[in-house]
Design a protein that fits this description.
The chain is an alpha+beta fold and about 550 residues long. An eight-stranded antiparallel sheet has the order 1-2-3-6-5-4-7-8, with no helix packed on it. It has a six-stranded antiparallel beta barrel with strand order 12-21-24-23-22-25. It has four domains: about 110 residues; about 90 residues, Immunoglobulin-like; about 160 residues, conserved putative lor/sdh protein from methanococcus maripaludis s2 fold (Beta Barrel), CATH 2.40.420; about 130 residues, RNA polymerase II/Efflux pump adaptor protein, barrel-sandwich hybrid domain (OB fold (Dihydrolipoamide Acetyltransferase, E2P), Beta Barrel). The chain is about 30% helix and about 35% strand. It starts with a helix and ends with a helix.
Length: about 550
C-alpha cells in the first residue's frame, strides 16, 4: 500500500470519527440539559444572597437621605443628613407602600426596622417615607425591586443530586461504546486502535469546550459578585460602600461651595520663646548646686517671678582658697591691732588730736568690712531666682551638680505667648500679608499675628516674626518645634474650602478627594489643592458646586479594594 492510499484511508477515518464525535456531543448535551436544567449549576448551589447585594431602596432630599435594605421580608432603614452624612437618631419614619403602611421602629444601633408581608412578594414596590425628626419634616419616595430568590434554579436537582451523577455515568458509558465501535471500524483499514481512540477523543475535547460556550465557567463571575453587601471597588474606580460600612467608618461629608479665598504662601518656621515673657536662669560664678526652699523645679512646673529655684555654693581651686584663708588671717590680725590702738588713743583723749582717734576708728571699721567680705567669699552662695513667671521649659540641674558661670540651668516660657520665626525669599510678600497661621501637625492650626520682618538676610532668607494669639483652645506648641507657616495674602482666588483630611493620594500619587455621588457610591476626583490654613485646603480645580466631599474617613474609603 503506497502513501497516497494510506492518506485517503486516514482522511476517511477522520471523517467517520468526526461524525461519531458529533453524535456523542448530542447525547451528552441532552444528558447535560436534563441534569443541569435552567441556571447551569455546576456545583452545590449557594444561597442566593451570598454573591448578590440585598434589595435596596434609596432616596434623598435637601435635608435627609434614606436607604432601606430588605432581607427576609424585613427592611432596615438608615436615615442620615444629606449634607453631612451624619446619622439621624430618634426620628419618626412612616413607611407606605400600596396598602402596606406603618411606622419604622428605632433600634439601639441607630437604624430603623420595618417589617411587612408585602416585602416578601417579588415585584417592584413604590415606597414613600415621611420623616419627622422633631424640627424638620420631609417626604421621600423610591422604588424597591424584589426578585424571586429561587428564580432560574432547579431545586429538584438540589434535592436529588443522584440525578446529576446518573447523567454523568450515562455519558461515560456512551463514550466507551463509541470508542469500541471506532476501533472495530478502523481496524480493517490499517488504523491502529490507539490512533482511532485518539481521533475520537481529540475531536471530542474541543467540541465539548465549544459546546460549553460562554457562561458556563462561573469562577470569574462568582469572584466579581462575591460579597454583594460588602465594600468593593468598582471597575470604573468608584467605591460601593454600604450604609452599615459607612456607619462603622464614620464617613462624613460637606457640600462644596465656591468662594473667593485668599492666596497663600507656605513657609518653613520654628517656634521660639517670646523675649518679653520668657527667661533664662544662669549663675554668675562656678559652684555646686544646692536645693532651694521648694526643691529643684521639674519640667512643666509653674513658677513665679522672684521665686528661688536653686542655690549655687561657690567652689574655688585649692590655691585660691588658700589665698583667701591667708588673707582672712592677715585681716583678722590687722583688725585686732587697730582695735587696741583705738583703745589707747581713747585713753589719751584730750592730749591726742581728735583726728587721730577718728582715723583709728575708721581703720577698724574698714578692716572689719574687708574681713567680712573675704570671709564670705570662702563659702559664698548665690540664689538663682526666676526672672519671669511661667513654666519650666528646660531644667539641666541636679543636687550636688558642679556648674560653671553663665551656664543655662533653667529656661522659663509662657505657653500662651510664644513666637514663630519663618524665612521668606520674596521681599514683595512683606507688603501683602493679611493673616497667618501655623500648623504643627496635619489638620491642626494656630492663629498667628505678624510682628515684623528683619532687614538683614539670615541664611539667604528674610526673617519674619509672628506671635501666637493664645487662648484656651490654642494648640500647644513647644520651643524649637518646626511648624509650617501659611501666610494668607490680600489677593484672592476662586476655590472650595475643604478640611485637610479630605485630600488623599491616588495610586499615581496625585491629590484627590472622594465625592459622595450616590447613597452608597463614592467617586474619586483628582484635584489641585493649596493650603488655606493648617486645617483647610483650597481646591481650585476638580470640584463643582454642590459636590458632597468626604471630609472624615476619606483615607479609609481610599483603601477599599
Amino acid at each position: 500500500m503506497n502513501s497516497l492510499e494510506k492518506m485517503k484511508k486516514l482522511g476517511l477515518a477522520l471523517m467517520g470519527a468526526w461524525r461519531l464525535t458529533m453524535l456523542l456531543i448530542a447525547i451528552l448535551a441532552g444528558a447535560s440539559m436534563a441534569v443541569a436544567g435552567p441556571g447551569h449549576d455546576h456545583g452545590d448551589e449557594a444561597p442566593i444572597a451570598s454573591g448578590t447585594a440585598s434589595p435596596r431602596v434609596h432616596s434623598h432630599s435637601d435635608l435627609f437621605e434614606v436607604v432601606g435594605i430588605v432581607e427576609a421580608g424585613v427592611m432596615t432603614l438608615y436615615l442620615d443628613r444629606y449634607t453631612s452624612n451624619e446619622p439621624v437618631h430618634g426620628a419618626k419614619i412612616e413607611v407606605e407602600t400600596g396598602a402596606a403602611k406603618g411606622l419604622a421602629q428605632p433600634q439601639s444601633d441607630g437604624t430603623y426596622r420595618f417589617e411587612h408581608a408585602a416585602l416578601k412578594t417579588p415585584g417592584t414596590l413604590p415606597i414613600s417615607f415621611t420623616v419627622n425628626d422633631g424640627k424638620d419634616t420631609d417626604l421621600l419616595a423610591g422604588d424597591l425591586k424584589l426578585q424571586d430568590a429561587h428564580a432560574g434554579h432547579d431545586h429538584d436537582e438540589v434535592s436529588r443530586p443522584w440525578v446529576r451523577w446518573a447523567g454523568y455515568a450515562a455519558g461515560a458509558l456512551a463514550l466507551l461504546v463509541l470508542a469500541a465501535a471506532a476501533v472495530r471500524r478502523f481496524r480493517h483499514r490499517g488504523i491502529t486502535p490507539l490512533l482511532a481512540c485518539c481521533v475520537v477523543v481529540g475531536g471530542l475535547v474541543p467540541s465539548m469546550d465549544a459546546a460549553a460556550g460562554p457562561g458556563h465557567d462561573h469562577g470569574e463571575e462568582a469572584a466579581a459578585s462575591a460579597g454583594g453587601n460588602s465594600p468593593k471597588r468598582q471597575p470604573d474606580g468608584s467605591v460601593f460602600l454600604p450604609k452599615p460600612s459607612q456607619r462603622q467608618l464614620g464617613v462624613r461629608t460637606v457640600v462644596a461651595e465656591e468662594k473667593a479665598l485668599p492666596k497663600t504662601v507656605e513657609l518653613a518656621g520654628r517656634v521660639v520663646a517670646d523675649p518679653n515673657t520668657g527667661g533664662k536662669v544662669q549663675p554668675t560664678q562656678a559652684g555646686r548646686i544646692e536645693v532651694g526652699p521648694r526643691g529643684l523645679p521639674q519640667l512643666g512646673q509653674s513658677v513665679r517671678k522672684g521665686e528661688t529655684l536653686a542655690v549655687v555654693r561657690a567652689s574655688n581651686a585649692a590655691i585660691e582658697r588658700a589665698n583667701q584663708v591667708a588673707q582672712t588671717a592677715e585681716l583678722k590680725a590687722n583688725l585686732e591691732l587697730a582695735r587696741k590702738r583705738v583703745v589707747r588713743l581713747e585713753q589719751l583723749e584730750g592730749t591726742v588730736a581728735q583726728k587721730d582717734i577718728d582715723a583709728a576708728r575708721a581703720e577698724v571699721g574698714s578692716l572689719a568690712q574687708r574681713l567680712a567680705a573675704v570671709g564670705a567669699s570662702v563659702s559664698a552662695t548665690e540664689a538663682l531666682v526666676a526672672p519671669v513667671s511661667g513654666v519650666i521649659a528646660v531644667a539641666n540641674v541636679m543636687a550636688g551638680q558642679v556648674v560653671d558661670a553663665r551656664e543655662v540651668l533653667f529656661e522659663i516660657v509662657d505657653p500662651a505667648r510664644l513666637m514663630v520665626e519663618a524665612g521668606a525669599f520674596d521681599a514683595a510678600l512683606l507688603g501683602t500679608i493679611a493673616s497667618a497661621s501655623a500648623s504643627a501637625t496635619p489638620g491642626t492650626t494656630v492663629a498667628l499675628r505678624f510682628v515684623g520682618a528683619g532687614r538683614a538676610l539670615r541664611e539667604g532668607a528674610i526673617p519674619l516674626q509672628f506671635s501666637t494669639t493664645g487662648g484656651k483652645d490654642a494648640v500647644p506648641l513647644v520651643v524649637g518645634q518646626p511648624v509650617k507657616v501659611i501666610v494668607q495674602t490680600r489677593e484672592t482666588v476662586k476655590g472650595f474650602a475643604v478640611p485637610t483630611g479630605a485630600v488623599v493620594k491616588n495610586p499615581s500619587n496625585q491629590d484627590m478627594v472622594w465625592v459622595h455621588t450616590g447613597a452608597e457610591v463614592f467617586q474619586p476626583r483628582p484635584v489641585r489643592a493649596i493650603a488655606l490654613d493648617g486645617a483647610r485646603v483650597s481646591v481650585v480645580d476638580g470640584l463643582k458646586a454642590g459636590d458632597r466631599v468626604v471630609t472624615q474617613g476619606a483615607p479609609l474609603v481610599n483603601q477599599v479594594r
